[in-house]
Amino acid sequence: MGSLFRSETMCLAQLFLQSGTAYECLSALGEKGLVQFRDLNQNVSSFQRKFVGEVKRCEELERILAYLVQEINRADIPLPEGETSPPAPPLKQVLEMQEQLQKLEAELREVTKNKERLRKNLLELTEYTHVLRVSKAFVRRDMQFEPTYEEFPSLENDSLLDYSCMQRLGAKLGFVSGLINQGKAEAFGKTLWRACRGHSIVTHAELEGPLEDPETGEVIKWYVFLISFWGEQIGHKVKKICDCYHCHVYPYPNTAEERREIQEGLNTRIQDLYTVLHKTEDYLRQVLCKAAESVYSRVIQVKKMKAIYHMLNMCSFDVTNKCLIAEVWCPEADLHELRLALEEGSSGASIPSFMNTIPTKETPPTLIRTNKFTEGFQNIVDAYGVGSYREVNPALFTIITFPFLFAVMFGDLGHGFVMFLFALLLVLNEDHPRLSQSQEIVRMFFNGRYILLLMGLFSVYTGLIYNDCFSKSLNLFGSGWNVSAMYSSGHSPAEQRKMMLWNDSVIRHNRVLQLDPSVPGVFRGPYPLGIDPIWNLATNRLTFLNSFKMKMSVILGIIHMTFGVILGIFNHLHFRKKFNIYLVSIPELLFMLCIFGYLVFMIFYKWLVYSAETSRVAPSILIEFINMFLFPASDTGGLYPGQEHVQRLLLVITALSVPVLFLGKPLFLLWLHRGRSCFGVSRSGYTLVRKDSEEEVSLLGSQDIEEGNNQMEDGCREVTCEEFNFGEILMTQVIHSIEYCLGCISNTASYLRLWALSLAHAQLSDVLWAMLMRVGLRVDTTYGVLLLLPVIALFAVLTIFILLIMEGLSAFLHAIRLHCTRASHYCGLSRCGAQAPDAQAQRPWLTGPAAPRHVGSSRTGTRTRVPCIGRWTLNHCA
Amino acid sequence: MLEGAELYFNADHGYLEGLVRGCKAGLLTQRDYINLVQCETLEDLKIHLQTTDYGNFLANQTNPLTVSIIDTEMRKKLCREFEYFRNHSLEPLSTFFTYMTCSYMIDNVILLMNGALQKKSVKEILVKCHPLGRFTEMEAVNIAETPSDLFNAILVETPLAPFFQDCMSENTLDELNIEILRNKLYKSYIEAFYKFCKNHGDVTAEIMCPILEFEADRRAFIITLNSFGTELSKEDRETLYPTCGKLYPEGLRLLAQAEDFEQMKRVADHGVYKALFEAVGDGSGGKTLEDVFYEREVQMNVLAFNRQFHYGVFYAYTKLKEQEIRNVVWIAECISQRHRTKINSYIPIL
After folding, report:
1. Do B44 and A195 touch (CB under 8 A)?
2. 8 Å CB contact of B136 and A245
3. Comparison of pLDDT for A409 and A240, the residue scoring more
């Protein structure tokens, strides 16, 4: 509880790391995840730092490992993933590891290169066989059709063309055959035609199966082409154009025997290549399998090593260069462990590394320890801002208020119970590995499982209060209303005359009948828990529930907001700024309570004082509340005697608290700044006091220097003794006050969403019931079963998707929005408490419900949710 | 083009404009340059570039770093971004992108032809080609012997084809003719681009026209400067000037008559270019004319980002990124050649 209420106390520690063992020390610290390092070399650019060489080496190793992983994946070898995370490698092993990896890489590259060459060879040979096979058909076709081509006038005379004839013409007629990429074939043909002015003929046919492109490795379709051309000159051009289109050109055999010979030769060579390639691949696979065993742990080790060097880059050297100085933020509770880790790290060295704490005026980072239960709630709070150091952490209260506000909107016993069961399932199986490694949406539910659990439980509770279970009421204790008592027959004649009782004609002629609680026996006292089930039958149920829920949401909202302001008081007490309580918190409280607190009072008063008999004379709270501000001339009676005076008094208090809120704090700070003297006192006293304080400041500064902080450090610290700027403080306070006063009104209105959403939820489930289940239940018994089954299935599906998931998400978002409202009250105070210098800038007033507050970068700067040199995050390695 | 591009610009091009503005925010800042200048080795440079938007673009290099590796990788990155823009663009933005690539295509064609003239292998020269100006027919350029050959056989289907109408001649391609061909192509290109932007109207015209006018005038100046002491006649020279600049027509006529740098300077005396010529230092110390022009270009390109709903941002971004690459290459070159005195004369991008 203590750790969740406020963030951990932190201290700034200086670590003196012997340069020999600095690496081991940091490794030990990293395994524990105890500290956050501060960058002491901020003005040194990244390539001028001390350990750049080592970082580069790590990058080189990473590159090799990435190459290995890529090759392993390509070979479809499963990568074994170790459960444990190995520690960073000791320095001695690093060299060895590097050598091993480099050797492995060289070997692998060699083998892959060989393999690629073999594959390419094989591919070429296969391509050649394809070309031969397909082009054989061309020539035969050519023989039949060639006479018709005008470009071959000499051949026209000789219509009986055969191979010998081609051979005779061979001197003049040239052939180029090859393969071309399908997409380029058309452009290729056109260019050839244009460039050779028609002195060539291209015949092409598509290759049946796709082949791999040797350059890109893509599998694409190819065309086999055969160009026949005349003359030497054109031959050169054709070859150049082939080159330009990246054709694979293969020699064209002139005779049938030659073709057969080549084909046979090719076939044997392909066979040989296959066996060689097979062996190479086997060997490659062996090498990769061996590499795959250790690659996972190596990747993690190198990552850790790199992280360590990054942290070492943040350290500064002392004058003797023997020792590294690191400045870290560490929770005070962990200092002992920090010492232990340092000893462990430097156990091998003659001089141990040590640490000492240094006093600082800087605001330490916020560390809030969470466990699996509180983590989800903390995340919700972090979504709209991380508190400053030692501020009250609203997450503690969110654990209850968040599910509660959600449940107010989601109040339904049945739905809540389903949600609870779902969350319970997640919680009971939380160790299941499939859940923690699941996809985004499931993971989201998984991370919020405890929130869901509580939301479900609270919904069950509010469902009981609303007496809603899948939009039906439960009659657990028996209704407090008795309808039969309304009949005239049960009463004495005297009573019959006095009251409006029912008889047969009344029942027959009226569609709507009203129960009268003032009739004895009709109302037998309130229902023990929640809303009386009889309302489920009443036609004016909605009117009744609206009035009830609206008032309830105003009451809840005002309690919630007041609670936020009170939390602020805790902050002021903690930071020893009592004046903030008197000048800010109390005026704020007065402002809110005098207006809205009074409204709540009126609601309760009306509930308690007016009974069934007097309900007809009860005044409207709304009118009374408006009259409080308007001072009407005519007296309306009011709730209680003397109401007017009380209301006037409250208004005066409210009006008075506003100027205090606006001016109180700035004026007080001004007075403090002027040396606590009164405004009218002579100047001499004032100067005297100033001198004193200046001396003090300079003394403090020299102490700082003696403590051996470097100059940059001083630069940082000077920021804390900031200049007193009255105008700025006044502006901040005025803005804050305006925001608060307007916020009170708008937030009260915005809490009405509790009512609106719960109404919407109830109506929606009512509609679903009426449209589906009632239809299913109305059918007579024989066939009803058959119909009821699909109807129930549909009902269940719609209930889950619309009412549980959709409505649930909407209620969830609204609950988040309401917590932002509260937080704005509360964080607003924290700004004054803990000098977060620019908290102002990142507190936009929220206008939409679904706009979670962004965490500004400056504020995240001081935020340490994960307090260490990167608690090793394994999911990044995977 | 209809008026009021603001109303529907975002429907077609809003995504890309947002993207390019984001990319522009990733340009190296003045701080980055200050850090880069301090680097001792190329490795340092790499480490610093890793902290910028370039990320680990050099991480997969196993060989020792050289300036040309840095250059190609940076260009590749620019090219990737450009291709992304281009693939996601709709008309008329995609035509605009095509126009943008044309200038690189012209350069590549000329480079290849020069290479062919010096009997270098195509592979060797392909590496030097700008990746933005690549096209499939490119490698066949060296089979052409005359400009009309080049046009008929190879370039007729590329976007460059329309620019060829002025330069169809049967001259053999020697070094001077290639240079003239380049300038003629460029002249037609820039005039066509100018016309396209003008016709497009709206903010695009307002932004792009001044940039292209400046580009045209810069070419005119550079052509003049380079033609001093060559066999190029004054009449020929005048035909090479792009006519869409601010100098047209009177300034160009004067420029054609100019015989040395002083006369050229006098031409610029009256117009907007006076300040630029005044900024040029003499001999050793000051900036060169080229640098001054680059600075002015950067300035105009940066200003293009002040308006919304126009295509100029894409042009400006590409040019700025190119300038950044030139800067980094310059710094890297200075570092690798240990020539630190000149390291600061990169063109700052404001």
Report:
1. no
2. yes
3. A409
Q: Any CB–CB contact under 8 A between A241 and chain B? A: yes
Chain A residue closest in CA terms to B45: A47
DSSP state of A801: I
**pLDDT class of B97 with cuts at 50, 70, 90:** very high
- Structure confidence at residue A82 (pLDDT): 65
- Nearest Cβ partner for B140 among A45, A56, A244: A244
Give the CA distances from residue A776 to residues A468, A612, A782, in Å, rounded to whole numbers and listed in that order: 21, 40, 12
pLDDT class of A349 with cuts at 50, 70, 90: low
B122 and A46: CB-CB below 8 Å?
no
Span A564-593, average pLDDT? 86
**B154 vs A191: CB contact, 8 Å cut-off?**
yes
Cβ pair A55, A266 in contact under 8 A = no
Q: Any idea which residue has 């880069």 for tokens?
A: B36
Among the ranges given (A324-333, A591-600, A641-650), the one the predictor scored with the smallest mean pLDDT: A324-333
Distance between CA A408 and CA A226 in Å, rounded? Answer: 81
What confidence category does residue B302 fall into, taking pLDDT thresholds of 50, 70 and 90?
very high
Sign of CA dihedral B294, B297, B303, B304: negative
Q: Which residues of B touch A184 (CB under 8 A)?
A: 136
What value does the CA radius of gyration of chain B take, rounded to a whole number of Å? 21
- Report whether pLDDT(A693) > 70: no
Contact assignment for B136 to A244 by CB distance below 8 Å: yes
The whole-angstrom distance between B139's CA and the closest CA on chain A is 5
Q: Nearest-CA distance from B62 to chain A in Å?
A: 9
pLDDT score of A859 more than 70: no
Asked if the Cβ–Cβ distance from B137 to A237 is below 8 Å, we say no
Single pTM value for the model: 0.65
Q: How many residues does chain B have?
A: 350
Confidence band (pLDDT; 50, 70, 90) for B109?
confident
CB < 8 Å to A190, chain B: 157
Q: What share of chain B is helix, strand, coil (3-state, %, to 5)?
A: 70, 0, 30
CB contacts of A236 in chain B (<8 Å) are 143
Q: What is the DSSP track for B126-163?
A: HHHS-GGG--GGGGGGGG--SHHHIIIIIGGGSTTGGG
